[in-house]
Amino acid sequence: MKNLKENTSPFITISRLITMLEDHTPVPLRLEANLELKVLCPGPDDGDRGDIPTTTPLAVPETVSLIISPPGCSLHVTETGRGTHNSGRSWILCLEEYDIVSGDYLDKIDRAIEQIIQYTPSIVKGLILCGTCIDVLLGTDYDFYTDHLSKKYGIRVSAQIMGPILKGTPGSGLYHMYTAIYRLLRFPDKPIAEKSVNILGILKDPSPDSELPALLHDAGIDKIYYIGDFISLEACDNMICSLLNIVVCESALTAAEEMKRKFQIPYIVLLPSYDPDTIHEYYQKISEALNLSVDDSFYYKKARKLIHLLRAKAADITCAVGERNISPVLNVALDTIALGFRLEAIFLRKAASADLPILRKIAAENPDTRIYYDTHPGMWNYIHSPQNYDISFGVPFPYLRNTPYTMDAPIHFPYIDYATLERLITRINRLLDCRRQTHSVPDEDTIHKKRRWIIYRQERKEL
After folding, report:
1. Burial letters for 223-253: b for 16+ Cβ neighbours within 10 Å, e otherwise?
2. Helix (H, G, I), strand (E, B), or coil: what is residue 320?
3. Neighbour tally for 429: CB within 10 Å
4. What is the C-alpha separation between 44 and 119, in angstroms, rounded?
5. What are phi and psi of 255, to 5 degrees?
6. 3-state secondary structure of 269
7. CB of 188 within 8 A of CB of 232?
8. Would you say 143 and 158 are in contact if contact means Cβ atoms under 8 Å apart?
9. 10-31 b/e with 16+ CB inside 10 Å = b?
10. Global pTM value
């Protein structure tokens, strides 16, 4: 009984977590989620960091998607896969028990595609098939089948696997999704003469006021391409002529490798960061990859000055971070330390040996940081007697319900430029300049309605 009580303790320290991961000891609070995380921990991206493998690809123009799945997966897609791009362009083919047992459902897919092309009101020039774990088990050869469909219907076809059981690995749905998206590209009939680079791993420009295009233009680069910013699928083919692929999401690595093999486009990996030193290093890497000189010195000095001023203001302010961010929670934790806040707690869903490097960096600054596993049943008790922090960086709403004066910081959505960092600092300074601030927390009924893709509004009022 004593061990049971120890194993249901509400938290462990980050130092203890590191030791347990190093020793391959089971983490006491780690419980594989037996509840719906997207209801417990609602966020702006519904828990998938903004990327939904089934519907995100529809940011690419003139494409449709067909999800081929059992009814259970279809239900998940209809409830969580809503988005601004998929009106009349995302379709579901439900498999019956016989289809799954026999594996004989290719004819059904063929008939479904024929109807989609016939009845979709917009132009269809590209199709992305989306299979599930069933196809992994059955070994469905979608590569062969996409070639057949492409020849039959005269459109571009690629395929991906959602693969939720493989989430967090190179076999996960996001890796397949990005590979399927960029696999739609073809050599253009009339190659453009402009010098360009591609951004892989995010489909649209996330930072319209970024200094990145101007600095690259001054260095001799005419365009920066995001595949979702084109008006037609054929226009997307201009990406094939680019000098460099910049990968800003690990899930796009397989796509970058395939484009290097097929189109001889080299790539570099620059993962989003709020650290000005890291961003400065990124510009140096871009310079080396393009054999050009990109001068970011003005923006670098300005960003360091802004960080210095914020650190002076944030030195005595306690904070906690959670999964309600676009950026991974451990990256957010490291960001808050770099910004000068006193990190007291991390609300975490899981940690593995691969996370040890970043956990050690956090522990070097804050060895007593508490780790709460927000999937553990014991956290229901925490809701009624929570710890108080001065500011929350993405802590799930249920854990803020009884802390009405905890300030709710902007959601972390870093990029590879200084403009995004400056935007965050401006918003945080505005937040800290308020004497008191409240946040609205959804009531129980609102949380149950989460499945209807509600985006929660944070109401702020200076008292």
Report:
1. bbbbbbebeebbbbbbbbbbbbbbbbbebbb
2. strand
3. 14
4. 33
5. -65, -40
6. strand
7. no
8. no
9. ebbebbbbbebbeeeeebbbbb
10. 0.82
Q: Which residues contact 359 (CB under 8 A, 6 or more apart)?
A: 14, 17, 18, 21, 330, 351
Q: What share of the chain is helix, strand, coil (3-state, %, to 5)?
A: 45, 15, 40
Q: How far apart are CA 450 and CA 408, in angstroms?
A: 20
Question: Tokens 């996960």, residue?
Answer: 172
| Residues in a beta bridge with 392 | 320, 408
Task: Give which of 90, 85, 92 is closest to 59, Cα–Cα.
Answer: 85
Location of structure tokens 């828990």: 47
Q: Which domains are assigned to the chain?
A: 56-182 (3.40.50.1980), 196-290 (3.40.50.1980), 298-452 (3.40.50)
Report the pLDDT value the prediction gives residue 385, as an integer from 0 to 100: 81
Residue closest to 252 by CA, chosen among 236, 267, 264: 267
Tens of pLDDT along 189-219?
A: 877 778 999 999 888 888 889 999 999 999 9
Alpha helices, DSSP H, located in 64-187: 71-80, 97-102, 106-119, 133-138, 142-153, 173-182
